[in-house]
Amino acid sequence: MLLTTIFSAFAAEYGPTIEGDFVVAESTEVSDTGAVGCSDQSLHDGILLPDLPLFFTRSQPDHTWGSREMVELLVDTARHMRWLMPDASPITMGEISRQRGGELSGHKTHRGGIDADVGIYLTGARQQAGMFVDPGPSQFDVEANWALISAMLDTGRVDMILLDHAHISRLKSYVLRAGLLSEEEAAQIFVGEGKGSYRAVGVIRHAPAHRDHLHVRVLCPDGSRASLR
Ligand SMILES: [Zn+2]
């Protein structure tokens, strides 16, 4: 797709900025038909996840560049968690993408600023600063993790969330038991229990090696999905 990138002179010179609570986007990708898409291969005019210690800990800040949608989703989610669970730990952020995207060591994706690895909560809504921890069967804080995931879903910007199937089962049981979702709604949202894959239908899907973090992918600005590799 032919993309035309619209820059502001300020953005070109100084890069993206954060003003107060707002992430200011200086550029937008617009196709020749006017649709606003995104790439899963490279990142244009990425925004660095802001340094907000009450919201996040980051072990590799230079690998936390994302699209505007990605950064807004993470900041909005973290702000919501501060409001809902003020005693919860800041969210442990893994990698998003490099400043201009492209291949990122150890990942198949994370090339276009639209994928982020996010820590999950252990009992007591705790996260280990700067490090992912597998909560195992007994330390998975189902209430806090559902609050985190539902805050992401509520933004309307999530394409998919990848997580271990055992955690998915715990979340699904919890939302049904607590009456937060109907059986029908839960069946539409959760894919897992060993059967799903990241290509399956459903927002929350199983993927191997996702016991100590979740992977969230955002939709493009126009609501379309970046093509899956
Ligand atoms: Zn990931």
Describe the structure.
By secondary structure, this protein is an alpha+beta fold. It has one domain (3-218): Muramoyl-pentapeptide Carboxypeptidase, domain 2 (2-Layer Sandwich). 24% of the residues lie in helices and 19% in strands. It contains 5 helices and 12 strands. The protein has helices at residues 9-14, 68-84, 142-154, 165-177, 183-189; strands at 3-6, 17-19, 22-24, 28-31, 47-48, 56-58, 65-66, 91-93, 115-119, 158-163, 204-206, 213-218. The strands form 5 sheets. Strands 9-12-10-11 form a 4-stranded mixed β-sheet. A two-stranded antiparallel sheet has the order 1-4. The protein has a two-stranded antiparallel sheet with strand order 2-3. The structure holds zinc ion. Residues 107, 110, 115, 117, 215 line the site of zinc ion.
